[in-house]
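Input for the complex:
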Amino acid sequence: MTLLCAEMPEQLDQVKPWLERWLVRPELFDLVAELHALRQPGRTPASVSESLGEQWGKVLRQGLAPLGSKELGMLLTNPVLLLEMQELIVEQGGDYWRRMFRESATTDDPPIAMQTEIVDGERLVPLKWHRRPILVGLISAVSVASILVAVYVLHLRPAGNQPQGEVAAAGWGWAKPGALPQDLSRSEYLQRLGADADEWHKKIPNTRALLATRLHEFRLGCTTLLISENRPLTAADKEWLLRRCREWANAIDQLLARVEASNPADPIERIRADADRNAKEIAAELRKRVNA
Amino acid sequence: MSTASSGESELIRRCQSGDKEAFTRLCDLYERQLQCVLYRIDSTCVDDLVQETKLRAWERFSQFHGEAFGSWYLRVGRNQAISLGRKKRPKSTAELPEPSEGNRQGILSMLVRKLEESEKYQALADCLDQLNEKDRTIVRGKFELGDDRVLGERLGMATDTLQRRRYKALGQLRDCMKRKMS
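Predicted:
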């Protein structure tokens, strides 16, 4: 089992989104149990509204953005306030939090009713098959082969409206079933590709194993896109997409190599931040292409 | 919970005409919030409790009279989970009262007790005891979000030494947790 709190990013600007995502998850209790064990004993927390004063109203409306390091540190070192905060956000949170809850619910987070298990220092939770860390080693070992198999199978399939069909190997992005409908308009198709790339952000893979799995899925999406007919696109679009997609695939391969290197000087937070930026740029490029 | 959006109002109107599909969609709007409420009452059967809540809420929908649906639905879920918990564990300490300003301190005390009863808390507290005082301070420093340079000066060590020690100490805690929880 990983130590959930150890995955907290080092940079303050990344701590806020990390903590917000926890605040809309049922498993917040597990994180808080850890933080509570680590805290300096003896302090009695006030209520969250009393502790944050005027900021509390803003937090209910805008999320954690208005808080500085002092307030965030106070919450992390008095973590029972995070549970109270969650309870109040559930009841009184504004549109910002409602959106966070809905987005959190649409991701395929681990089922929350089952117990976790411990393997090699990683937290194993009941995941969809493609996200199971136990498969990550296997996926690493055969990633090239699996991509080739996908390519082979895809080439054998007759052209249809959804060329990747059931051979798709991921539950999100370009490799999910039905991700590349061939009957859209050009602009709809490009927008759709951008939205699919954005699905990267629906998860926060907080271990090397999970990040590797997620990157493999992204990489497989590139393959799916590269071999798709991309019928809604013009010839110039297709040429552009092939060129850019190869470059995106290379960038993902490099991120994967960094994950697999397990270099303490290159922590998972840094790789994940680079991967987030990469996905954001890809989505933006695709949307920009609509007006090309 | 704030007022309903027009889409939500429409769903409520359809539910009042007996539309079960609309009711499911309405419940889905608050599913994550419900999971959060239920998880801390009984984390072992949240999915079952969500289904029970939907059923119970549908049965009692005639008692819903125009207040915020989310609040009403979460209250049904909380009561349902507590009621089922009582049947399973008559002396359960897992029950959390309805949040209100009046009983906030009571809720916090109860949450603290529940946290300290958790297996995870106890395992990590034991593991933390195995670190020396300096390493405990270094680990805690991560969550205080203070300046590592200042903490390093206080502890008489360079910032990069402090960060290396923190990395190592967190690794020790992780290993210790693995042993204890397996």
